[in-house]
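#struct-help
A.M.: can someone run this one for me? Single chain, 370 residues.
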Amino acid sequence: MIVERKSVDLGELQLDSGETIPSATIAYESYGELNEARSNAILIQHAFSGDAHAAGVSKKDGATGWWENMIGPGKAFDTDKYFVFCSNVLGGCSGTTGPGSTNPATGKPYGLGFPFVTVADMIRLQKGLVEHLGIEKLLSVSGGSMGGMQALQWAASYPEMCASVIPIASTHRHSAQQIAFNEVGRQAIMADPDFEDGNYYDGPGPGRGLSVARMIGHITYMSDDSMREKFGRRRRQMSDESSLFEVESYLRHRGGQFVGRFDANSYIAITKAMDTFDLSLGHASLGDVFEPFDGRFLVISFTSDWLYPSYQSQEIVRALRGRVKDVAYVELPSSYGHDAFLVEAGEQTEIVRGFLASTFKKLTPVGAAR
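D.P.: on it. Structure tokens below:
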């Protein structure tokens, strides 16, 4: 499946901060076809470092989508049955308006002058895309990690526009530990001499700091078991006759790859949006947030995920059950840590496939075209 990124300018966007982005562009990819009733649309939300290229092979560079094992014909998000699409988040660096975009007021990149954005702002821009596509109600919104936060925000902000939500390995708000890891990454970037207060677009940019930030983040995505199995204490011989532990070489490689595709200012903007995300803020309880939502929930977590541990998913489930909402919860066994939602396609596929099929059946009148 060869896919091509599309983009649309949705015009002025009002932000939670009170600021305005005069012209907000959103980049997205789509897979499968909308049915006549436009009732089979599924919005996929990417995690922090992802983008709109969720599946298929990119026409631009031949890269495979980040959730290729879950999206496609016969897969969990079956593109023979559903219209599946994914957009790059507001504040990102893969086609959607972000810090690297041109500020119309100055003619230069926004840099650190890019307005503070929230997860709710990201969803507000996505709502514009959904309306642009002529979709009144989404069959489902799903994603892992930060993608799960966005899915939850959809249920809170626009409960009438989604029939189901599937947050995977996610949370309704960051813990102190999660905020701490993000702050260390931000400080690594800002300590780089090439950061230039975020105005580095005419220079080399803070590659060393961004690489270290990614290395720190990548450690949190894995588990002790998966790192022991993949690397152990094995060494790799270097050209200068020195040696590195394989895990050191792996992290350096990952850091270098990340520098080539991600903007440091986007790293700062998106992690701040994640850290300030608190779905229950302004409500008496988390359950109150979901009171207007009449759809279905499927919440998935993984046993070895210590970055977004299962107790955070269980908090969401308890809040939903306290409001007698339609919610299913599954904790899947895995040794892959937080990365399990990207790797463990087997059981995850069966669960998601069945949930989507029953949701679609529930929404489709007997005798109606599917």
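A.M.: thanks! The chain has a mean pLDDT of 96.
D.P.: also worth noting: The chain has two domains: 2-174+277-363, 178-272.
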